[in-house]
């Protein structure tokens, strides 16, 4: 029977997981346990002070995070003590990460709520954690949730200015999520189409986000009017530096270009990612026209 004939989409998605890291199976069968004490004393995310201890197999956390691999296998004090402390993360976010380590999915340990219903700011802080603690797999899963949230019929809502500050102030300009949000704003939400309500939303955006949006908008417009690259162009060789082939692939970020801003190391990773996209497409619908931005 074809995989896609299974009636329950959640069951399908559960069977399609990203390739796992290469584990030392002896370490998993007879694990060395390490303890991470987590408090948010120095966290930029606003929340009441909390502290929790998390104990996890060393092999598990080290294969999913280059940061913790360096700490626990790099010959530092943490290697001998089998313990470390981090003070810039909410224990709530680290709990999400712990769930990911064991299940290769994103969810709260005691929370059956769909992650795409979580607040934008919380999802962005989860992604920032994945970036700071160098967990590519966790970042990829959070990115997936962000893409789903952006397309859910009940929430055609682009993140507001405060939410965007989390991304713009804590991630490098080269980061894929930054680029994705800028591209989504222009191609899915049409914020610069001249509508007064949408243009009035622009001042709420962080200045660097607005600047990156304007730059990409100019590149997209340059391609549209190009006699070679435009929709009615002759497809001849183009030497115009005001745009590139990249701009031709930006549209359709939720379907045919789902992986445009993902960083897949192999073709297998990309194909698995696209297969997962197909299995949870039931969670959202494509809007037939660009979506208006929510006004505060």
TrEMBL record:
Residues 41-110 form the BTB domain. PANTHER family: BTB DOMAIN-CONTAINING PROTEIN, BTB DOMAIN-CONTAINING PROTEIN-RELATED. This is BTB domain-containing protein.
């Amino acid at each position: 029977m074809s995989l896609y004939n299974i009636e329950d989409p959640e069951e399908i998605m559960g069977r399609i997981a990203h390739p796992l890291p290469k584990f030392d199976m002896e370490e998993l069968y007879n694990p060395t346990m390490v303890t991470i004490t987590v408090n948010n004393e120095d966290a930029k995310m606003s929340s009441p002070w909390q502290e929790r201890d998390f104990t996890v197999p060393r092999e598990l956390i080290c294969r999913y995070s280059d940061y913790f691999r360096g700490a626990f296998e790099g010959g530092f004090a943490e290697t001998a003590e089998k313990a470390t402390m981090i003070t810039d993360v909410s224990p709530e976010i680290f709990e999400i990460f712990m769930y990911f380590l064991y299940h290769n999915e994103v969810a709260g340990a005691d929370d059956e709520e769909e992650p795409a219903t979580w607040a934008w700011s919380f999802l962005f802080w989860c992604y920032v954690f994945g970036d700071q603690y160098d967990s590519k797999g966790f970042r990829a899963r959070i990115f997936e949730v962000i893409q789903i949230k952006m397309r859910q019929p009940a929430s055609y809502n682009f993140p507001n200015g405060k939410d965007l500050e989390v991304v713009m102030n804590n991630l490098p300009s080269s980061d894929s999520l930054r680029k994705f949000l800028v591209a989504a704003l222009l191609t899915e939400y049409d914020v610069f189409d001249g509508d007064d309500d949408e243009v009035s939303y622009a001042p709420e955006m962080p200045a660097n986000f607005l600047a990156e949006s304007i730059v990409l908008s100019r590149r997209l417009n340059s391609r549209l009017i190009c006699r070679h690259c435009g929709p009615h162009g002759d497809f001849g060789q183009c030497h115009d530096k005001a745009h590139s082939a990249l701009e031709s692939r930006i549209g359709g970020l939720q379907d045919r270009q789902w992986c445009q801003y993902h960083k897949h190391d192999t073709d297998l990773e990309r194909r698995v990612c696209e297969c997962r996209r197909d299995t949870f497409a039931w969670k959202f619908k494509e809007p037939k026209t660009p979506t208006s931005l929510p006004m505060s």
